[in-house]
Design brief:
The structure is a homodimer of 358-residue chains.
Chain A (H helix, E strand, L loop, with lengths): L1 E10 L3 H19 L1 E7 L4 H7 L5 H9 L2 E6 L14 H12 L3 E7 L12 H4 L3 E7 L11 E4 L5 E10 H17 L3 E6 L5 H13 L7 E6 H10 L6 E4 L1 H15 L6 E5 L5 E5 L16 H14 L3 H16 L2 E2 L9 E2 L2 H11 L1
Parallel strand pairs in A: 1-2, 1-3, 3-12, 5-10, 8-9, 8-10, 13-14
Antiparallel strand pairs in A: 4-5, 4-11, 6-7, 11-12
Helix pairs in contact in A: 1-10, 1-11, 1-12, 6-7, 8-9, 10-11, 11-12
The structure holds 3-isopropylmalic acid (2 copies).
One 3-isopropylmalic acid sits at the interface of chains B and A.
Chain lengths: 358, 358
C-alpha cells in the first residue's frame, strides 16, 4: 500500500483546530483507500516565533521539503503584528513558499448552491460562480530586488520594491494556467496592467505567445482595475484567471469574498516538482481562536486538494469533497455560514460530521 | 464677475458626447451665478495621436497648465491598443497628470437611493454606501524608476518596474486624506501591504505619524487584499480610504462597480497649486461611441467637482449636483442605469433634462 509523509503546520489562531479536523479526515480516507500517512507536525508562524525565535525554523522547512505534501493551517495574530519584518509570521510563509519553490497558487472560488445566500451579491449574480485564480506565487514585487529603504538627495526617506518578471517565470505559470483552464471550461483570462507597467507588457507578450500551444483554450486579457470591477459586476464571466503575485493576492481575496463563504475555500501551491503546499485561504482569526467556532471545511477541502494535486490520489480526494457536500446537505453549519433553520455546530462537531459522511 | 479659463479635453469614444453635455451645464450655471467661462477645447489621447502623432501634444499640456481647471472626457480605444508604450492614449493621460502635478485623486463612490437597484450587491449591503477613495496619483509604480526591459545572465528577458515612495509624497497625500475625512464622517482607512512591501511599511509609518495632527479623525490601517474583500462584504464600513497609485487604481474601480452605476461617478485630481483635472471614472466605451447612448452624468458631476474643488464655486457646484438628482427623480435614465417603468433617454436628451433641472 502507498505511504506518504505529510508535514502538518498548524500555525496560529484557529490553525491548530482546523488542522486537527483535516488530519482526522485524511486518516479516515487513508484507511478506506489503503493509503498510509505519516504526519510530521512542525512549528511555523507566530507559534514558531514564540518557540524558536524565527517564523520558519530550519527543521520545519527541512521537514516540509522532505515530505510528500505540506498542509498549513493559518499564521499570524495581533501579538506579532508590530514585529520587524524578518520576525513577522508572514515572512515565514513567504520563506516557505520560496523554499518549496511553489510558484503556482491555485485558488478556486466556488459558490455552492447550499451557500448561495452567504454571498453579499444578489442571488442571480452569485449563483453558479465557479472560477479559479492561478496566482504566480514566488516572483514579482513580493520577492523582487532591490528592495528596502534609503534617503534621496533632499534627505527624504524612501521605501522601495521591485516588480520584476523573467520570461521563464511567466511561461511556467502561464502553462499551469492554460492546463488548468483546459481541464475546466477552456477559458483563460490573463490579468495585468500592460497599459502602464513594463513587467505587465512582458507578461502579456509571453502569455499571448504560448496561446498557440493551447488552441482549445480561449485566451483573453484584462486590466487589473477592470478585473476588480468585473468580479463584482458579473463573476460568472470568469473560468480561469492567471495573474501575478500582488494582483493575484488582491483579486483572489476579492473573488473569495464574492462567494460569501471564505471559511469554505481551499488553496494549493505547486512547484515544478517536490511537495506542494496546501492551505485554507482564510486567516488565523485570532478573535475566535480556541473557542471551537472555526469552520474547518476550507482546511478539509485543502486536504482534498493535497490528495488530488499533491499526491495524485484522485479517488481519496473525491471522497472528501463528497463528504463535505453531504455534511452541508445534512444541514450542518458553523457560525460563519449559518442561517436560520440549520444546525449550528462548532469546529469539532463539524469535523465529526465530515467523518460520518466519509 | 469672475472669469475662468477651462481646458476641455473631449478625448476618444464617448468623450466628446459627454463633454459637450457638461460644457452646456457649466455654461448655464455660469450665467445664473454670474461667472464667465472661456473654454479651450484641445486634442488628447487617441484623437491627438491621429491628429498630431502624440497622445499629449505640447499645446494641449500648455493650455491645461495655463487654465484654471481641466475637464477630460475619456481616452483610449481598440485602434490604439497595440501601440507602443509612448504612443498609447494612456501614456498621454499619465503625462498630463505628471505635468499638472495632480498627486491627489479623489474618487467618490456613492450609492444614490434612486439607483440602489443598479448594484449587483444585495440592497441591504449597497444602500447608503458613501465612500471616498483618495488615491496617490503621480508616484509609486506608475512613475518609479528604474523601469523597462533587460536580459538576465541566462539570456532570459526581464520586465521590471519600481514601486517607490518618498516620505514627502506620502505626507502630502495623507494630509489631503485626513482633511477629506475631516469634512466627511471623520474616519480614514489607510490601505497598504505593509506585511510584505517596504514601500508600504514607510507608507504606514508616515500616515501613522501624521495622525496626531488630526485628533478628530479616526485612523485605521488595512491590508490591500483585505480591503478588496471588505469592499464586497460590507462597503458601508468605509468613509475615506487613502492608498497608493496602483492599489487606488484597483480599489477605486472595485468600489465604483459596487455602486452599480459607474456612469454616474466623477473624479477630481488635485495638486499643491495650479489647475485640477476632472474626469468621469468610466472609460471611452468605444462600443457605444457616437450612438448617443452614453450616460453624461459622471462628466456633469465631474464638472460639479471642478466648480467645488477646482474653482471654489461651491454654490454653482451644488446647483449642478441638485440638478442631477432632480433629473433622476423625474425618472430619466440612460441605458446603463435604466430599469422598467423609467424614462429611457440618450446622452443628448439627458443633457437637456439636466439643463431643465438647473
Ligand atoms: C500573509 C500574506 C503574506 C499572504 C500574501 O500576501 O501572499 C496572504 O495574504 C495570502 O494571500 O496568502
Ligand atoms: C488609463 C489608465 C492609465 C488609468 C490608470 O491606471 O490610472 C485608469 O485606469 C484610471 O484609473 O484613471
Amino acid at each position: 500500500s502507498k505511504s506518504y509523509t505529510i508535514t502538518l503546520l498548524p500555525g496560529d489562531g484557529i490553525g491548530p483546530e482546523v488542522i486537527s479536523v483535516a488530519k482526522n479526515a485524511l486518516q479516515l480516507v487513508a484507511s478506506l483507500e489503503g493509503i498510509k500517512f505519516k504526519f510530521n507536525e512542525m512549528p511555523m508562524g507566530g507559534a514558531a516565533l514564540d518557540l524558536t525565535g524565527v517564523p520558519l525554523p530550519e527543521e520545519t522547512l527541512l521537514s516540509a521539503k522532505q515530505s510528500d505534501a505540506v498542509l498549513l493551517g493559518a499564521i499570524g495574530g495581533y501579538k506579532w503584528d508590530n514585529n520587524e519584518k524578518h520576525l513577522k509570521p508572514e515572512t515565514g510563509l513567504l520563506q516557505l513558499r520560496e523554499g518549496l519553490k511553489v510558484f503556482a497558487n491555485l485558488r478556486p472560488a466556488t459558490v455552492l448552491p447550499q451557500l448561495v445566500d452567504a454571498s453579499t451579491l444578489k442571488k442571480e449574480v452569485a449563483e453558479g460562480v465557479d472560477l479559479m485564480v492561478v496566482r504566480e506565487l514566488t516572483g514579482g514585487i513580493y520577492f523582487g530586488k532591490p528592495r528596502g529603504f534609503s534617503t534621496n538627495e533632499n534627505g527624504d526617506e524612501l521605501g522601495f520594491n521591485t516588480e520584476v518578471y523573467a520570461a521563464h517565470e511567466i511561461d511556467r505559470i502561464a502553462r499551469v494556467a492554460f492546463e488548468t483552464a483546459r481541464k475546466r471550461r477552456g477559458k483563460l483570462c490573463s490579468v495585468d496592467k500592460a497599459n502602464v507597467l513594463e513587467a505587465s507588457m512582458l507578461w502579456r507578450k509571453r502569455v499571448t505567445s504560448l496561446a498557440s500551444e493551447y488552441p482549445d483554450v480561449e485566451l483573453s486579457h484584462m486590466y487589473v482595475d477592470n478585473a476588480a470591477m468585473q468580479l463584482v459586476r458579473n463573476p460568472k464571466q470568469f473560468d480561469t484567471i492567471v495573474t501575478n503575485n500582488i494582483f493575484g493576492d488582491i483579486l483572489s481575496d476579492e473573488a473569495s469574498m464574492i462567494t460569501g463563504s471564505i471559511g469554505m475555500l481551499p488553496s494549493a501551491s505547486l512547484g515544478e516538482s517536490g511537495p506542494g503546499l496546501f492551505e485554507p485561504i482564510h486567516g488565523s482569526a485570532p478573535d475566535i481562536a480556541g473557542q471551537d467556532k472555526a469552520n474547518p471545511l476550507a482546511t478539509v477541502l485543502s486536504a482534498a486538494m493535497l490528495l488530488k494535486y499533491g499526491l495524485g490520489e484522485e479517488k481519496a480526494a473525491l471522497r472528501i469533497e463528497a463528504a463535505v457536500l453531504d455534511t452541508l446537505n445534512r444541514g450542518f453549519r458553523t457560525g460563519d455560514i449559518h442561517s436560520a433553520g440549520l444546525n449550528l455546530v462548532g469546529c469539532k462537531e463539524m469535523g465529526e460530521q465530515v467523518l460520518k459522511s466519509i
